[in-house]
Amino acid sequence: ERGVNHDIWVLPFAEGADPWSFLATPAEEYQPAISPDGRWLAYASDVSGQAEVYLTDFPDGRNRWLVSAGGGTEPAWAPGGRELFYIQQVAEGQVVLFAVTVDRRGEMELGRPEELFRGPFTMPMILGRSYDVSPDGQRFLMVRRPEQSRALERLVVVLNLTDEMKRRVGE
Question: What is the pLDDT of residues 103-133, one digit of tens each?
């Protein structure tokens, strides 16, 4: 039924251009990530019964390849477009970041998902992404979950930070 699930739409930058539906199925399609060259779209979908990461040609959307293995969400492209990252929740409070090589020189070829690291990071989000990739593709910015045993004992709020910094350095 239209409008019940998340779908992926395209909003052209051209003045007066209307948005158009790119992926609209009974399944959930979300977290779109367009490749740096604009020819491919990675996204998450539960069409298989669990969240997985898929890749399709853009803007045609004629082909679809499964990227993840055993579940995955939040696809992100490496700056050069030769790697695709995604995360998978493996246990309560534990997230794994995977990398998949993408070879587009001939037929689309995807490498096997390789685990880069795991840890107590923020869980996947249905809209948006809970991490980002550095411009060189070598680092990731992720939010670490607080340790369960550590309670917040003190919170410091600094008002007028700029004035406080000037006061402390003597300007």
Answer: 877 678 899 999 999 988 887 667 788 899 9
CA–CA gap between residue 118 and residue 10 (Å, rounded): 33
d(CA 86, CA 74): 5
Per DSSP (E only), the strands in the chain are: 8-10, 20-23, 29-34, 40-45, 52-57, 64-66, 73-77, 83-91, 94-103, 109-110, 114-119, 131-133, 140-142
- The candidate with the shortest Cα–Cα distance to 76, out of 45, 126, 37, 36, is 36
* Cα separation, 100 vs 163, whole angstroms: 47
Could you tell me which residues are beta bridge partners of residue 88?
96
List all residues 6 or more positions away from 127 whose beta carbon is below 8 Å from its beta carbon.
6, 30, 31
Give the list of residues 6+ apart from residue 104 with CB closer than 8 angstroms, or none.
39, 40, 81
**For residue 119, what are its two tokens?**
């840890």
pLDDT digits (tens, 9 = 90+) for 71-90: 999 999 999 899 999 999 88
